[in-house]
Amino acid sequence: MISRYTRPAMGEIWTDAARYARWLEIEILACEAWAKRGRIPARAVQTMRRRARIDPERIAELEAEVKHDIIAFVTQVAETVGPDGRFLHLGLTSSDVLDTGFALQLRDAAALLLEGQDRLIAALRRLALAHKSTLMIGRTHGMHAEPITFGVKVASWHAEAVRNRERLVTATREIAVGTLSGAVGVFGNVSPQIESYVLGKLGLVAEPVATQVVARDRHAAFFSALAVLGTSIERIALEIRHMQRTELGEAEEPFTSGQKGSSAMPHKRNPILSENVTGLARLLRAYAGAALENVALWHERDISHSSVERVIAPDATIALDFMLARMTGVLENLVVRPERMRANLELSRGVVLSENVLLALVQKGAIRQDAYRWVQRAAHDTLAGRSTFLDALAAEPEIQKRLSKRDLERLLDPDRHLDHLDLLFRRGLGTSGSSRQRTSRRRPTARTSRGGAK
Length: 454
Fold this sequence. Notes:
The chain has three domains: 90 residues, Fumarase C, Chain B, domain 1 (Orthogonal Bundle), CATH 1.10.275.10; 249 residues, Fumarase C, Chain A, domain 2 (Up-down Bundle); 103 residues, Ribonucleotide Reductase Protein R1, domain 1 (Orthogonal Bundle), CATH 1.10.40.30. Helices cover 62% and strands 5% of the residues. The protein is elongated. It is built from 19 helices and six strands. The strands form three sheets. It has a two-stranded antiparallel ribbon with strand order 1-2. A two-stranded parallel ribbon has the order 3-4. Strand 3, helix 8 and strand 4 form a beta-alpha-beta unit.
């Protein structure tokens, strides 16, 4: 159900025809290597290049009889080559072709995922810069904490996305590994030079000691990297879902013309795009678990991993390709409401800046525990609706002795929390960009409050 929504290129990597094409290239390159060593005639390789054809239907017919995919494949190709087809698969074992071909598929899939990740990173960067100074409330435990900006929130997502790109690059390098070492991996009937030639042509490196198969810790690391990447996308999706809740209304997924949110309730605008992504992230984590289970095989090999990989490899890469495209689209078209962010920030009537007052009192000589009690009492009066936080603080006798009302007004200005935006953006985006005009000494203008772009 996912593949029809994704770019065709990702799905095409996992078709039977694409898999067989990679197998054929491996087989012919091995014959080329043998020919260079004088083991088979050079003309035989020329014949293979000219006449070899793949017929997935014929392979399926043969496999139904022999119950072996590589034998069926080699038999079918040999039928199209003629007498020189007897040189195919010389000295190789099935896993040589299966694992090396699988490495090519995973590497090609990873290249598409990296393209998608780059687009996501670019979208996050643009969104963060557009809302660098858009004030909003930060929340811990789901409760109001202290002011942040929406740009800082997005910069955190950006930094994580960059780390995930690095993880994917590392994981791709780990699985770009093949083997042509024969049965049980000891080069009993094939030369290491054959392996070196073929893998060099394919741009792969050799498994140092293949036990007949490429070690599956590599694949476990790869699918784990996909799971982490997907979970980071889920983190963004979950935040958007929270921000779209009616009570917050701070941001919203794009809602297209003609779209309907509910079959029963015409008013609904649900965050279905982010919800879909959240669900798919669960699958990626499950696939990572399955890949970990594949690491331990019997002795030099069994094929318990094979059935798992035939499911999780196309599913995981196609699902993540879809998730990247979907979340990038959401971020590029996200409806951001700075006025609601500001209104929610002011909902608690200033108590979210209580730490500013606490620290100022300590600097004025108050014992921290006493100052905490005075500020907390004023905050609770404010939350109970009996006063504004400024008035409640000013009414505290011990606070009056240490801080004037003007001092309190300055301490309760949320723009104080914008002083280190440039530092956070250098860290989160990797560049300082243009110099930011300081906003910590003034209230936001109407333009800043509505648009937040800086």
